[in-house]
Design a protein that fits this description.
- About 10% of the residues lie in helices and about 20% in strands.
- It has 2 helices and 8 strands.
């Protein structure tokens, strides 16, 4: 359950196709690492990105909005688990750098279909309830979707 300012978002996790990614997300969520982490990159019609637990946690001493999106967790990066799940409305997928094996803690939720991402990013979940709350996340107003005064995750817990 991803708790946002406008309500709860229920995400179904796909441990059958991305077991290591689901394990990582659940571990960080259950440790409270995603609580107060901002949506640092939000592009209308595309996606909302969050999960930088190092520089994106608005209640941490390391918080730096200018660096949000460049950090991760203290855990090692994950080996990609690219799969056949499509990037469509509500898909939850891992963010990464140009290195396919660089996913760590950041993820994004697709606002709409983005087939050009298919089999290039690890899909690990899908919004099954509360997508209307995802659509209310503040959109980026800066370069590449960067958000000034961004919305944040209130809490993220697995069931």
């Amino acid at each position: 359950i991803l708790k946002l300012k406008d309500g709860d978002v229920k995400i179904k996790l796909f441990s059958d196709v991305a077991p290591k990614h689901v394990e990582r997300i659940k571990k960080l969520a259950d440790e409270g690492k995603y609580d107060n982490v901002v949506f640092h990159r939000v592009i209308d019609g595309f996606m909302a990105q969050t999960g930088d637990v190092k520089f994106g946690n608005s209640s941490s001493n390391d918080f730096d909005l200018n660096r949000a999106g460049t950090g991760g967790s203290s855990l090692p990066d994950l080996i990609s688990e690219f799969n056949d799940m499509p990037h469509e409305k509500g898909t939850v997928s891992m963010a990464r750098s140009s290195d396919p094996n660089s996913a760590n803690s950041q993820f994004f939720i697709c606002f709409d279909s983005a087939p050009f991402l298919d089999r290039n990013y690890t899909v690990f979940g899908k919004v099954i309830e509360g997508m209307d709350h995802v659509y209310k996340i503040k959109r980026g107003d800066g370069p590449n979707g960067s958000v000034s005064n961004p919305d944040k995750i209130i809490s993220f817990k697995s069931l």
